[in-house]
Amino acid sequence: MAFGLNKVQIIGRLGADVTVNHLASGGRVANLSIATDESYINKSRVS
After folding, report:
1. Residues sharing a CB contact under 8 Å with residue 22, sequence separation 6 or more, in sequence order
2. Separation of alpha carbons 12 and 42, rounded Å
3. Is the distance from CB of 19 to CB of 29 less than 8 angstroms?
4. Distance between CA atoms of 29 and 20, rounded to whole angstroms?
5. CB 11, CB 36: distance < 8 Å
6. Pick from 32, 8, 7, 9: which is nearest to 20 by CA?
7. Full 3-state SS string of the chain
8. Terminus-to-terminus CA distance in the chain, angstroms?
9. Tens-place pLDDT, residues 1-47
10. 43 inside domain
11. Is residue 47 part of a domain?
12. Is the dihedral of CA 14, 19, 25, 26 positive or negative?
């Protein structure tokens, strides 16, 4: 399996402390909440 770099830039305010969990396979998962002040509604979407 090939590994690459995934890069994301999220602009906002942290809602709580970030928690990092360690997986049995040695990987890590970070959980965080972000508060922003912008919203988007797709009015052309039919539900």
Report:
1. 28
2. 21
3. no
4. 6
5. yes
6. 32
7. CCCCCCCCCCCCEECCCCEEEECCCCCEEEECCEECCCCCCCCCCCC
8. 38
9. 577 888 888 888 888 899 999 999 999 999 989 887 877 788 887 65
10. no
11. no
12. positive
**In the structure encoding, which two tokens stand for residue 39, read together?**
């919203």
How far apart are the C-alpha atoms of 18 and 33, rounded to whole Å?
Answer: 8
What digits encode the pLDDT tens for the residues 31-41? 989 887 877 78
φ/ψ of 26, rounded to 5, equals 100, -10
Let me know if residue 17 belongs to a domain.
Answer: yes
Query: Is residue 45 in some structural domain?
Result: no
Domain range for residue 11?
1-35
Its pTM stands at 0.48
